[in-house]
User: Fold these one by one.
Assistant:
Number 1:
Amino acid sequence: MRQLNSTYRGIDTTTDVLSFPQTDTTTFRKSTPGNHSMLGDIVVNLHKAERQAREYHSTFYEELKKLLIHGLLHLIGFDHERDTRSGRKMHKKSKELLSKFSI
């Protein structure tokens, strides 16, 4: 995961989740319902997810759910690193999806 983060983001440290869009995220936002296409790939660092679950007093599956939603939001164009407003929007959408998603 560290190598992927270094290669594709220029950040030489490990991370918990990475997303690799198949196409430009604006394509997704302009798509119509029923128009199915591959969004991209989400890579989850399972070891880090397990550590974070313990750290946050959560279960592994809850942490995995958070990371998958986080990665999915990046694939559809959300970016918490862009600015504070974008970060708040992504956090709000993440909480909304987490409340509807059960494992």
Note: The beta strands are 17-21, 40-44.
Number 2:
Amino acid sequence: MQYSSEHSARVRGPRRFDPKTMRSKRLSKSIRVIVGNLRRGNGSMVVQAYRFARAAFTPLQARKWLKDHRVEFVRFDAARGRR
């Protein structure tokens, strides 16, 4: 899904999660992580997606950050619209 102010890297599909457990946590001023419990998991919080502020990261910079941190993702969506 495209957002206007953030680039998004999906690690797992949102339907795999219990929606009541979904949370957003800041890793830094410009990076958020979406976490939650898997429906068929052991109760541990796991990453669903990473979000990068468009004002701080280009799509290429966000992808490089993911690669540098060895984050595997299934889908990447650049923020839509203009800066």
Note: The chain has one domain: 6-77.
